[in-house]
Design goal:
single chain; 76 residues; mainly alpha
Length: 76
């Protein structure tokens, strides 16, 4: 499970993966699961370059477990 809290959303904005409106959409969700689902829904609509920047952000925010799943177990 992706942790959308604690820096990931800011990294995604800095790397121009998310817009501010998309970040706010994720942040307004009440539960961790809703934030995670919303973020994934947004990311799946992005182009390949943005998805690669997302993967980089996962590593930058110590979410190697998600990175490894995407890289080695299919992910899409």
């Amino acid at each position: 499970m992706i942790d959308p809290d604690f820096g990931l959303l800011e990294k995604l904005m800095n790397k121009e993966v998310l817009t501010d409106a998309e970040r706010q959409n994720v942040e307004t969700k009440n539960s961790f699961q809703e934030r995670n689902d919303t973020l994934l829904s947004i990311l799946l609509r992005k182009d390949d370059a943005a998805q690669q920047r997302f993967i980089s952000c996962l590593r930058d925010t110590d979410q190697d477990h998600v990175y490894n799943f995407i890289q080695w177990n299919g992910g899409k």
